[in-house]
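Aim 2 progress update. The chain analyzed this quarter is reproduced below.
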Amino acid sequence: MQPSSTDERLVPMRLQRFLARAGVASRRGSENLMTAGRVRVNGEVVTELGSRVDPRTDVVSVDGREVRLGEAPAYLMLNKPAGYLCTMRDPRGRPTVAELMPLEDHPGLFCVGRLDKDTTGLLLFTTDGDAAQRLLHPSYEKEKRYLALIDRPLSARARLALERGIALDDGPAAPAKVRELGAEEARGVPFAIAKWPHGAAAVELTIHEGRKHQVKRMFKAVGREVLALHRASFGPLELGELALGAWRELTHDEVSALRAL
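Predicted structure tokens:
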């Protein structure tokens, strides 16, 4: 009997490609898992990147958890607290967001983009490397809504400059949406600051770019200092009532909305 076209696509297959297709991690992330000795094939640790597997007969596991093709990639969101680095491993032993996530269930999990160490709020995690690359690509304009505590209120001129597109040292920032928060609404924002300084103001800033320290640099360009920063949304995802330091899996509708981007 002739092999089916499906069988022909499955055999043989590089191990890192198998792991990526199974939703464990991106290909680069899968290679890292292999070289770290965390991947076994038929009970034997495999670290050689050129290794191949037969998905129909070989048993592949990561950190003791069996992996099969057809498993859906994982998508989770975290309400990141202040004080954690957005990396899955830090050679200096500093606290990382990996400590807050269920890596035992999703060993290839990684964060999509970054938040500064002192910034709180919505951080997306996935095992889908291809989707992560698309979400981070500048051509996919994803709105990101930040709540910023700044040292003093915006003037009409400063607000207009942000709305028109402020000049930064690495090129002009795209126009932002700006909304000043009233006192009652601002009190409900979980800013990572013990006490509001006298004269501080809260502002909602919505952008669709993702440059390093962009929000802080935008406010600095109009003469304002960011005292605390919180990301409330990323594309179609809303943080909602998720507690600080807690995570949850995305719903089917949320995953579909992300993919629709």
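The two ends are 43 Å apart (CA to CA). The longest helix spans residues 27-35. These observations will guide the mutagenesis experiments scheduled for the next reporting period.
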